[in-house]
Predict the structure.
Amino acid sequence: MISRLHALGPDLRDMARLAAPIVLVSVGIQAMGVVDALMVGRLGGYAIASVALGNFYFFNISIFGIGLLYAIDPVVAQAVGAGDTAGIARGIQRGMLLAVASAIVIMLALLPGEWVLSALNQPDDVIGPTADYTRRRLLGAMPFLLFNVWRQALQAMGPVRPIVLAVLAANAVNALANYALIYGNFGFPALGVVGAGWATAISNWTMAGLLLWFAWPLLRDALRPWHPESLHWAPIRRMIGIGAPIGTQWFFEAFAFGITTIFMGWMGTASLAGHEIALNMAALTFMVPLGFSGAAAAVVGRAIGRGDMPAARRDAAAAIVCAVLFMSCSAAVFMAVPEFLATRYTREAATLAVAVSLIPIAGVFQVFDGTQAVTSGVLRGTGDTRVPAILHMVAFWGVGVPLGATLGFFTPLRERGLWWGLTAGLAAAAFLQTWRVIVRLRADIVRVQVDAPALVVSERGD
């Protein structure tokens, strides 16, 4: 094992160098949610719980649309590897069409907040603030999805500096807007939780606008002139055929965490707030393997596009090792100092007790979470999206959610039981997807072509 890691040394260094800016982007996007939770924490447990429910509502409604756009990874990355500039442009333009259509559906679905949250039997003191927060957040849905299109395209193409600059600027805007709108500074009204929703929407518009500005020299030839073929339904349908399983996979995973958030609401506001703190921290560290996942999808896709399967295999192995090593270190920190970490968010005793009990469990599932994330990226780069969706459904809804509900409601473990169920689901997803990567990369894979008469994902030996 040591000799194999030593042999991978150059690939590990190359992968870390390529993934570092993508990781920074992923962490930066998640940091906006962390800042929201930290800054509303001074208002009390109800505010943390309201932001938690608001984020749950927003992301579980929008996650399918976000995943749908990740069809850009194999389509554009493999076109880059093949030197197909027209294919790159058509892929990005179709992604933008899908983003606009998805955003309209998402915004409509986020409007009836009070009705949805009441139907889910959530605490009365958080329903109103959560619904108001979500209606402000939905104003940033369209720029957020367009940002994701341009981000995925740039990652597939290679240059990511414009994404880093846009995300850093958006974080600064988010922090200032939170400070102004939550607490009424700089002459603005004190809007509380609603102010955090406004701040997120403003930062999403900032992020998308700045990315387009910074990346215009790189994206210009892909965005204009508009290719009439980009409007043809058949290739759009094939692109949806790649992206819909990704959206389905992410939905199964996100809603597993989402249903756990609903269960926590049934246990009370303190349980919900403590869950949000632990989940907020775990989501931040998860951005690192998610960044490696994006890098893996890009480099594996480019290698397949140019017909270099040995490079695709080496890149996949390097990404998985890097992600697992980081999450192992993160797990050690979570398990060593849970109280120190939780008190960065709140000093409220009931909320703090729940958070401190959950953070070490978050440490346990870190390695599994990182593994399933990066293997998803490897498979996405190869164009394999349907099988991972099935594996996620089995892992989270055949194992994780039923086990968590049983341990949470029928044993004294309560909140910890729900989280041990999530841990089991993540472990199952990690093992199943690692097996799929091994099987998939044994084959010689040729490029995904959505403009062909039929979607071609040809393999030999699979």
